[in-house]
Specification:
Order of helices and strands: HEEEEEEEEEEEEEE
Number of strands: 14
Oligomer: single chain
Strand content: 25-35%
Shape: elongated
Strand order of the largest sheet: 4-6-9-13-14-11
């Protein structure tokens, strides 16, 4: 009997080679393709190896969520080609449809509004993406030359925004015209006067101008698509 402790015994070269091929229980690094492991073995039995860019279920899917903030629920990799993509409410009424031509139709949605108070010497203000902006002329001369939001993307390309005067305390408000080719977020307005200026009294409340966020000569600007000056 060789009275040698196990820890001191020599391991043969073939044995050591075989041991070196074994993965460590912690921090192991694998190379190549590892076979024979499935999702159930690692506690992910409900996970499927499916691309999540776009889901194409045979039946409609229901998404339920709580107060989770803004999330991208679905990202479409391409415009539908075989049939429209439809989002419905709980009663199966179509609320948003993307046609095979890429046209988006939305029904029964609320167009949010934003309130702006003009307090004198203001030449610009920013938008948050709302479709209606309620203007209060509080005081001073406010000559608006730029409206931030189109160039930044807070307002979508092709989105129309209506500006409406809802309260007039004193002094004056003007939206200034800029020739085509001006800086980003400037306004290209209609009319011989080259600007939009309500008459400056409570009787002009309800006056409005609608601007379109678009691109001209590679610059995102506002283009007037309609106006109304109330003289009630």
């Amino acid at each position: 009997v060789d009275n040698t402790a196990d820890s001191a015994k020599v391991v043969s070269t073939p044995q050591q080679t075989a041991l070196d091929l074994k993965a460590s229980l912690a921090g192991a690094t694998f190379t190549g393709t590892v076979a024979g492991i499935n999702s159930t073995m690692v506690g992910l039995g409900s996970v499927t190896n499916s691309a999540q860019v776009i889901l194409g279920p045979a039946a409609a899917q229901t998404v339920t969520y709580g107060a989770v903030g803004v999330q991208t629920i679905l990202k479409m990799a391409a415009v539908p080609t075989a049939a429209p993509f439809v989002i419905t409410d709980s009663g199966d009424a179509a609320k948003l449809t993307v046609s095979t031509g890429g046209v988006v139709t939305a029904k029964s949605f609320v167009n949010a509004s934003q309130s702006i108070s003009l307090t004198g010497g203001i030449t610009t203000f920013g938008l948050n993406g709302s479709g209606v902006v309620l203007l209060t002329q509080t005081s001073g001369v406010n000559t608006i030359a730029t409206i931030a939001g189109c160039d930044s993307g807070d307002v979508g390309q092709g989105q129309k925004v209506m500006f409406v005067t809802v309260d007039w305390v004193a002094d004056s408000l003007t939206f200034s015209d800029t020739a085509v080719g001006g800086a980003a977020d400037t306004m290209v307005l209609n009319g011989t006067a080259g600007h939009w200026a309500p008459t400056g009294a409570d009787s002009s409340n309800g006056s409005s101008i609608t601007l379109l966020c678009t691109t001209i000569s590679a610059t995102k600007v506002w283009v007037e698509v309609g106006r109304s000056v109330n003289t009630n």
